[in-house]
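We were asked to recover a plausible sequence for a given structure. The inputs and outputs are reproduced exactly as logged, with field labels preserved.

PROBLEM: sequence recovery
POSITIONS: 105
GIVEN STRUCTURE:
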């Protein structure tokens, strides 16, 4: 088990992964007109539920210091393109409601 954990950590340090992470963060910042210091979390998660893609990308960002927004892209981080992000007008629809199955972020 420890070997798989080490493999996962080393995968996430690869330059391609880090570049994809930075790209998605910047697209999110621009799309939703977030300030440079806005907190943005981008992560790739495995999903074992039936019908769920094996890897998906989860993005969370905060506005007004404590309002969390989130969305998922149903593909691995490296495959995400700018057009996969929700349109800017959906920003308020992405507000996370406490207790609504957001264990991931």
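RECOVERED SEQUENCE:
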């Amino acid at each position: 088990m420890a070997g798989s954990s080490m493999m996962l950590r080393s995968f996430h340090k690869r330059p391609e992964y880090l570049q994809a992470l930075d790209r998605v963060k910047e697209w999110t910042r621009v799309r939703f007109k977030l300030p440079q210091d806005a907190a943005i979390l981008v992560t790739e998660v495995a999903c074992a539920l039936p019908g769920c893609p094996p890897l998906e990308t989860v993005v969370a960002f905060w506005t007004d210091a404590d309002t969390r927004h989130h969305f998922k892209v149903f593909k691995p981080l490296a495959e995400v393109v700018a057009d996969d992000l929700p349109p800017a007008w959906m920003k308020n629809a992405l507000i996370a409601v406490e207790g609504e199955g957001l264990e991931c972020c």
